[in-house]
Amino acid sequence: xxxxxxxxxxxxxxxxxxRRELKFALESFWSGKSGEAALLxxxxxxxxxxxxxxxxxxxxxxxxxxFSLYDHVLDTSVMVGAIPDAYGWNGGKVSLATYFALxxxxxxETQGAACASGCGAHSHGVPALEMxxxxxxNYHYLTPEFTKGQVFTLxxxxxxDEYVEAKALGYQTRPVLLGPVTFxxxxxxxxxxxxxxxxxxxxxxxxxxxxxxxxxxxxxxVQIDEPCLVLDLDDATRQALRAAYxxxxxxxxxxxxMLTSYFGGLGDNLADALALPVAxxxxxxxRAPEQLDAVLARAPRGLVLSLGVIDxxxxxxxxxxxxxxxxxxxxxxxxxxxxxxxxSCSLLHVPIDLDLETDLDPDLKNWLAFSVQKMxxxxxxxxALAGGGxxxxxxxxDSARAFAARAASKKVHDPAVAARIAAIARQMAERASPFEIxxxxxxxxLDLPDFPTTTIGSFPQTPEVRKARAAHAKGALTDADxxxxxxxxxxxxxRWQEEIGxxxxxxxxxxxxxxxxxxxxxxxxxxxTQHGWVQSYGSRYVRPPIIFGDVSRPKQMTVAWSTYAQSxxxxxxxxxxxxxxxxMQWSFVRDxxxxxxxxxxxxxxxxDEVTDLEAAGIRIIQIDEPAIREGLPLxxxxxxxxxxxxxxxxxxxxxxxxxxTQIHTHMCYSEFNDIIQSIGAMDADVISIExxxxxxxxxxxxxxxxxxxxxxPGVYDIHSPRVPPVGEMTELLVKATKSLTPxxxxxxxxxxxxxxxxxxxxxxxxxxxxxxxDVRAALAKAAE
Length: 784
What we know:
The chain is an alpha/beta fold. The chain has 27 helices and 21 strands. α1 packs antiparallel against α2 (36-57), α7 packs parallel to α8 (235-251) and α11 packs across α13 (371-388).
């Protein structure tokens, strides 16, 4: 006999497949090894498996249209026909070739069979859309691009098609749409005078068309995600929300809408959200548990409340008894017909199945929950709150035991780390001299030309590198043989960099599996999974480490490889580290300590490595912090506290060195304008940033602030396979000189080159060096 349950919702599930099936299907299609039919068949199989898995685990509100071949924001752009002219789309169905050109860029008319489905005349040889972080997560979305007078049209019926597909398989799903207001606010225009929200009236008819089609095909509920509701909203956005949902209610009154917010609390937007004519409202009660009382006091009686109490962003097992104690009075007050139990946000951000992990410490594994286990927790809560607690009493009791065991475990707490944190002094986060003095010492020590060239750190992880790493991990390659292989790869990379004329070299990071994992595996307090993959963007998946306990550095992590590489050349060799904020932000972080304290622990561990690199003769040390912007709280009122400890942690890691040691940092795909003073406060000698996709637009922030230190504005988009010509990079550098003084500018790609192929990297870097020489020559001639 089935146990009664309150409605249970996931809001969305991981797309990638338990064994990364989507990644392999995509890469096979991109390489030409398989065709469009094989890719679409693989995607359909993943969707069917997701729906079946949720039903089997007790999820009652199963989503559809939460799947994407690349990115759900890109899917929305395609759905509404927001495709820039450069991609050659002339109306009608958007081909996969055009879809992936938007996502990845393209080079020449070389897509072969992929063009059989219809390529626009200019759909190749174009850069990808800009990419940036999805709110404060490590997921990247492709930025919609709008023009004045933008015409929207229904160019993809994907939400309807996937609803119908699920229905044919026996699943009555709740389709998911990215809300129109959030979609517009995520976009941008090359015309700075254009406010994307001014396009709402043109956009809404397309959404109305989709909603009507869903209703006509049998949909009862539609989930519309408006995460902009957790941001600081202006009056124009509030009015846009009223206009959009007023039109939806008028155009399709019989269709029930679940308005979904996540990643924070509604705060001062609560009244606006409650005034919208929707049937349901989702609340993130993990990020903002305090908002529940205010919502209960003000929500209309007939409004269905979706309570997001299972963490969709982290991997810790829920304390089920505590949640039940909190929710039972809510269900009693509003009635079971007006309450749903849900994850805080889509489960996109967590790995799929903990049962695949066979090597985890048993205690630690008992403290965790991945997507599958979180669905089980949701089902347990739904059944218990519907009065079926006796049937699942053992499950509830086991949850309580696991929570108590974790809190008391000696594996989590290290008194030595706590003592070191307590001993942090203010001067530990300050360099000995200001930048102007350090700069002179560094110029004498390094003797670099104007517009010095370098790369961000990593070189391609070729099949041979991955094969050797896998063989070593399996014991099929001895330590000595693996070390010899890595030394050979490093030596060849150093030789080639010298050959093409790079000024500051890197060792290529062939020994590193991932910029966070490599360090986490050498730090106490971290643990790693075998199959804990999550999507970063497209087919780029990562296995975030889990910070389960106090963090410290038992031994040196990078000194041996950096000093070996430096021994091969007289040119400066950069030591490469991942910064404390990124080490934390790109991990699943323990939730029993403030994040600021976790970050300080990591900063102290990295400080030890920085000083050891300097002592070993490394004169340039790069501490990458690409995640510092994404960690910024979504509400401005919370920014100062975060920025204070984030900057402090970077400086704590970086400030133990002499004046003649140059500290670099790297950040990519971030909007810096609002936090530029804090970027300056980090006091890195050189910062490298993404600017190629935005055509140096990000430099505007550094100009207005008059950034005093040196900057490497990226001139080469590494997320695209295309090789930019010399002239294109030269043009970007010349544009940079309009915003910065020539003696501030370094020349480098946007990001690391790990994911690219050597046949792309070699010509691109040769062109980059040539562009730097051209600009040097032009400036020298102008000075004559």
